[in-house]
Amino acid sequence: MVANVFGMDTIWVVVIALVVLFGGSQLPKLARNTGEAMKEFRKAHAEAASSEPVQVAPSPAAASTQPSVVAPPAPALQAGTSEERVTLTRSELDALLADREARAKKQAAGPEI
């Protein structure tokens, strides 16, 4: 009985249901859109799986041999101000995160008496 659910009969039922729901003239369009969506999904999945953090060429003022990482924009920007990009090296970013974690632990421990 379970074999019939996943057998060839099920494929015909699905095809007939699609024809009834969308009509014969819409099926090629539906198939094309589904194929394009699958192609885009696979492309995005492959890019996400193989991508590293966002890397930007270092500025001339901060020439470094390490790749740069663009810091996320500030969470709250004033109206009318322009968004500024900050470029950090990997070691600068690690030091910033370590400092932030140390401050959070110190603050969670409570005030010293």
TL;DR?
The chain is mainly α and 113 residues long.
Instruction: Report the β-strand fraction as a percent range.
Output: 5-15%
Number of strands: 3
Question: What's the mean pLDDT score?
Answer: 75
Main sheet summary? 3 strands, antiparallel
Q: Into how many domains do the coordinates divide?
A: 2
SSE series: HHHEEEH
The quaternary state of the protein chains shown equals single chain
- Helix and strand composition category: mainly alpha
What is the 3D shape? Answer: elongated
Number of helices: 4
How much helix, percentage-wise, in residues?
55-70%
Q: End-to-end distance, in Å?
A: 73 Å
Task: Report on the architecture of this protein.
This protein has 113 residues and is mostly helical. The protein has two domains: 2-50, no CATH class; 55-109, no CATH class. 56% of the residues lie in helices and 7% in strands. It is built from four helices and three strands, in the order H-H-H-E-E-E-H. It has helices spanning 2-5, 8-22, 27-50, 90-109; strands at 55-56, 68-70, 87-89. The chain has a three-stranded antiparallel sheet with strand order 1-2-3. The protein starts with a helix and ends with a helix.
Task: Give the key terms.
mainly alpha, elongated, 113 residues
Helix-strand blueprint:
Layout: H1 2-5, H2 8-22, H3 27-50, E1 55-56, E2 68-70, E3 87-89, H4 90-109
Antiparallel strand pairs: 1-2, 2-3
